[in-house]
Amino acid sequence: MKNFCRLNDDEIKRLEDIAREIRCSILTMVSEAGVGHIGGSLSITDILVALYFKVLKINPRDPGWPDRDRLVMSKGHGAAAIYSTLAEKGFFPKEELKTFGLINSNLQVHPDKNKVPGIEASTGALGQGLSIGLGMALAARLNKKDYYTFVILGDGEIQEGQVWEAAMFASHYRIDNLTAILDYNNVQLMGNVSEIMEIAPVAEKWSSFGWEVLEIDGHNFNQIIESLYKAKEVKGKPTIIIANTTKGKGVSFMQNTCKWHGSVPTQEEYIKAMAEVKK
Amino acid sequence: MVAMREAFGKSLVELGKKNKDVVVLDADLAISTKTTYFTEEFPDRFFQCGIAEQNMMGVAAGLASCGKIPFVTSFAVFVTKRPADQVSVSVAYPKLNVKIIGAYTGLFNGRTGATHMAGEDIALMRSIPNIVVIDPADTNELSKAVEAIASYCGPVYMRETRDEWPDVFDSSYKFEIGKAVTIKDGKDATIISCGVMTSQALIAANDLEKEEISVRVINMSTIKPIDREAIIKSALDTKAIVTCENHNIYGGLGSAVAEVLVEEAPVPMLRVGIKDMFSECGTNMELLEKFEMDPTSIVKTVKKVLIKKKQREF
Q: Angle at Cα B8 formed by Cα B5 and Cα B13, nearest 5°?
């Protein structure tokens, strides 16, 4: 297994460039479709870039490769982010992003695993992806394969009871070939998570359920990648990376507000947002 | 006679020997559902999930997406209602190869009463797209169905009950998903039944024969996809239908049959089943009688539908 080495400036720049492309894609897709979830897609972008361009053992030309790493986007409303990342990585042509959310499209607003190469689970109804990821991790054990499973959770999502059933199961079965990543942007549809249904103290909760807990800045590539490698070294228990992120990251007027959980920009807002991202 | 749950537990082991991808998940009820036999034989392929059915269903989905054939087992009430969204979104929508087994169905749940009564599981499962729904009549059909559903590629919900019930078939029986079987021919009326109620329907039909009323009995163990041809033929031939099920009269076999009749061959029809009420503790025979689902009640219902049939002819 590769050890983590701190990224040099060129590598960071490369990842930042990719992230910029993906943020532009997200804004364009949602604006043109008239539907989608910008805030939560922008907050997870850097983590997805790190995973798909530095960590995951995958082959865009063979999405069904049995030994591939699995990534379950449990917060399925982050579809715009994962579609843009998969397209950028070469899983399907970027032109297809224009069909997002349209009738007859493969790119549904919440991902359909039978319609998009690279999508491992049909998510969107929150709280279900961690369980699915655990099934994949168990299958790896049964099949004696060393692929790794990653599950991306939303913070509002962990209000769902099923997530805690899964958390108990993971530590009971000492699952160490799965890492969960929490997109902790503290904003959900109706408002701040802490006002709607407080989930804090998050680190203590996961730790008390028997998980190894790492906390990072979810927009710092070195921290993201280092934590992903560290997680793989933890044996006998699962790991969660609590990524402190900003909802709407990259567009000043979209940051830290529930308004941009599911709103669609006006033409004027779109132009302003794109200008900021491209800077 | 062997208890249905015994037959299920043993069939699962036989299946596990033939197919290494079969795995079993349980929610703290293995000793009741008899998946303990599988655990003893294949401990590495059995996953105890604790009293947490929603997670269990998701784990099954994950296993299925990697080529395993999970049999997710618990009491029918707990393996359908609690994880209904998980069944719909994680299993049925992506068409994953998960086999959901609901034990202790309907009234016959070992005297555990209303909270453990599955009176709506057929209604729930059949209204979710992509799920095959099966309720076998006896241990012979159950054993064959276990194999058949493992060979079928896609989500399945299969019911099985707890105790001993009379045989309807013998070991030579060949089960086919989606195919209803006429087990007694007749011309005055047809009883269409599923699950353990088929044996009761047969007793009722034989009783009616003594009164020179000729009743056809069809075992319709696959409720979805339903055998439309068998329903239409029996409607055209006998012009009177009674359905029997160990389930609420709303939403289950009776409703499924009525849907076909109304569209294709409307004839008088009455339903025998749980009359939209919660059950209580009692032996199987006590409950059958109290809830008017025993052969005496089935006979009465057939006679009622024959009156309706006669009224139509004038």
A: 130
